[in-house]
Amino acid sequence: MAFVHQTTSQAAVRFRDMLRRHVYSTPKSFLELISLYKNLLAKKREELRANRERLESGVDKIAQASAQVADLQVNLKQEQIIVDEKKAQTDALIVNIGQEKAVVDEAVEAGREDEEACAKLAEEVSAFQEECARDLEAAEPIIAEAEAALNSLDKASLGELKSFGSPASEVVQVVSACMVLTAPGGKIPKDLSWNAGKKFMGNVDSFLKSLVNFDKDNIPLACVDKVEKDYISNPNFNADYIRSKSGAAAGLCAWVVNICKYFRIYQVVAPKRANLAEANRKLDAANKKLSGIRAKVKELQDRVTALEENLMKATEDKNAAMAQAEKTATKAKLA
């Protein structure tokens, strides 16, 4: 290699002498060194450029991240305020629902007492009704017999009765009993003779109509007492016996006896009816009060239901706000 380099140098001298031009020769290793240096310089410059760009990009990203973190911190504070508000609203609703439920429970408890009282009163009224129904049921055959007795009378038979000049004493007693039983205002007439009886019957149509429409529920007690004492107590004062004397008188006798029987039953039923009416009045008042309580309880229950629905929505809103705040906090940490 050295020989070649020396030979090249000698040829260069000769070339300069002949042509007056310089020619230089450089070892290949030196040229390769120069080439290596150039390549290494270019590579380092490229690495430096890349590092500088990466550094600039990182600085920009850090600045952007810092700005984002600042924005996230602001958003996080705002979202935390919303979370606190939602928590406060939820807590207030929980307290309100507890208070409303306490009011509802108190109203339900009070209503339960009224329910029990009303149920007990309803049982009493039902018992009264059944008792009155049984008593009136016992009176129905008696009324039917009295009506049948009146139905056996007609204008002809009453006209025949009225035409008697001197009837049997039992017939006179039947008409007298009618006069006493139907005495207006309980004023028993002093004259109970046959002539007074015929005047009492007057127009037979009107007389029969007055018996049909007779107010059997409001007979003066004195009239019934006298009829029972002075007439019905007589063994011969019965329709079967008197029928042999007069068919019309027998009908009037049966009517008088059955009306008195009815009156005695009605004496027992009337107070029960009054008690029943009073019990019904109390029951109506209790039912009205109970209806008001039930309406109030329903109103309170509806309010509690509405509050629970609001609580559910508020809880969902609170959870959503908390999730959003947590998401923002996570982003801020990652940034």
* Count of discrete structural domains: 1
Ends: how far apart? 65 Å
Query: Main sheet?
Result: none
Q: What is the overall pLDDT average?
A: 79
Protein name: Flagellar outer dynein arm heavy chain beta
Subcellular location: Cell projection, Cilium; Cytoplasm, Cytoskeleton
GO molecular function, one term: dynein light intermediate chain binding
Organism: Tetraselmis sp. GSL018
Structure explained in plain terms:
- With 335 residues, this protein is mainly alpha-helical.
- It has a single domain, classed as Histone Acetyltransferase, Chain A (Up-down Bundle), CATH 1.20.920.
- It contains nine helices and no strands.
- Helix 2 runs antiparallel to helix 9, helix 4 runs antiparallel to helix 7 and helix 7 packs across helix 9.
- The longest helix has 124 residues.
- It starts with a helix and ends with a helix.
